[in-house]
Amino acid sequence: MSVPARQLPALDPDTAFYWQAGAQGQLQIARCTACRRYTHPPLPRCPSCGGQTAPEPVSGKGRVASFTINHQPWLPGLLVPYVFAAVALAEQEELYVLTNIIGCNPESVSIGMKLRVCFEPHGDVYLPMFQPDESHG
Ligand SMILES: [Zn+2]
């Protein structure tokens, strides 16, 4: 099976962990070492208290907060239609990741749908994506 074309992220020191933690099968999110609040996209300093952040593994569970179905192949080889979504992570209110929903018919995606993270490897980048998972609460 060929891997679909994706726009790959630029890796910088503050965000590389997010794109590479999939090598260990983990989703990692920046978390404040002082107030313990998660922040995404990653920032070196906590927007709430100014404390230092560090990547921490999270459960990888979440729900669809909003989504769009794209029918336009923006890149050669991109499979359409595909689902671009904001996924609300289980760890904290209003903690969202922007990603693709895979492993299901795009027409079956709905707000509140339960998801679990999965990873699509592209060299040393492991794109965090989500697929349906009805097994969690
Ligand atoms: Zn903080």
Write the SSE topology:
Blueprint lengths: L15 H5 L6 E6 L5 E2 L13 E6 L2 E10 L11 E8 L6 E6 L12 E9 L2 E8 L5
The site of zinc ion (ZN) has 8 residues, from loops.
Q: Can you walk through the features of this model?
A:
It is a single chain. This protein has one helix at 16-20; strands at residues 27-32, 38-39, 53-58, 61-70, 82-89, 96-101, 114-122, 125-132. The chain has 137 residues and is mainly β. The protein has one domain. The protein has a five-stranded antiparallel sheet with strand order 6-5-4-7-8. It has a three-stranded antiparallel sheet with strand order 2-1-3, with no helix packed on it. It is globular, with a radius of gyration of 15 Å. The model has no long low-confidence stretch (mean pLDDT 92). The site of zinc ion has 8 residues, from loops.
